[in-house]
């Protein structure tokens, strides 16, 4: 395990305290210039490894992105996931459930869109909203959301037992950084659309959100589906850290091209 992967892993079974973490930290990186170079190398390697994953067609990868508003989920998809071939990649953004989603259990819509063998699934928000926004806003009673940590662990166990590797990233920005990003959205006419007054309402609940993230990460970082806490104030560090963890994970899968039945040398094409 490299320095970044090791230092950002949320250790299973250990109580996480977000307030002790510096969102501007850059553990395992020298400086921005070095980070950009390393990231570029990782992105290239991610593409190569995805090609093998697709060829092998036995296992799949699920990447979960969570974070507060303006935490950089969209930017991560743009700058890191661009390494992947769209042919075998699927991004799903989870909004407040509606219609049929509301008539099923909360994991139904998640299960339906898990990546099939050979593919990569990227979740922009996820089933964790059901212990985050749902908890902060009392959308269900406490005795309902409390049980969900166990459901989620068991669900993720089943999914990983079935050949899907799960990586979960919490993009952690500071409250000051969020303010700056909101101000940027207000100042730039091409970014105005990203801002809503509702974002400020959520910002008022900052401490409640952090408490909910703490519990989600503490209860649901497991050896089979780990959470990584990514200090995300510096976008270049966020991109380096996430691309490095993904690359290491894919390398660790020891992906092989499938053996073919025929003898390629014996094939004659007229
Ligand atoms: P955005 O990611 O900015 O497009 O916003 C999506 C919104 O959907 C956020 O405010 C989420 O909190 C909300 N959302 C996602 N999943 C759920 C859920 N399970 N229950 C309630 N709200 C949700
Ligand atoms: Mg938003």
Keywords:
binds adenosine monophosphate; 270 residues; Rossmann fold; five-stranded parallel β-sheet; 11 helices; alpha/beta; binds magnesium ion; single chain
Descriptive notes:
The chain has helices spanning 3-8, 32-56, 73-79, 108-112, 133-136, 142-146, 148-161, 175-187, 197-204, 206-220, 235-252; strands at residues 60-67, 89-93, 120-124, 164-172, 227-231. It has a single domain, classed as Rossmann fold, CATH 3.40.50. The mean pLDDT is 97. It has a five-stranded parallel beta sheet with strand order 2-3-1-4-5, with helices on both faces. Helices cover 44% and strands 12% of the residues. By secondary structure, the protein is α/β, with parallel strands linked by helices. The longest helix is centred in the N-terminal third of the chain and has 25 residues, at 32-56. The protein contains eleven helices and five strands, in the order H-H-E-H-E-H-E-H-H-H-E-H-H-H-E-H. The radius of gyration is 20 Å and the shape is globular. The structure holds adenosine monophosphate and magnesium ion (MG). Adenosine monophosphate (AMP) is lined by residues 94-97, 125, 129-130, 133-134.
Concise summary:
The chain has 270 residues and is α/β, with parallel strands linked by helices.
Examine the coordinates and then state which fold CATH places here, giving the name of the CATH topology.
Rossmann fold
Number of strands: 5
Question: What topology, given as strand order, has the largest sheet?
Answer: 2-3-1-4-5
The ligands found in this model are: adenosine monophosphate, magnesium ion
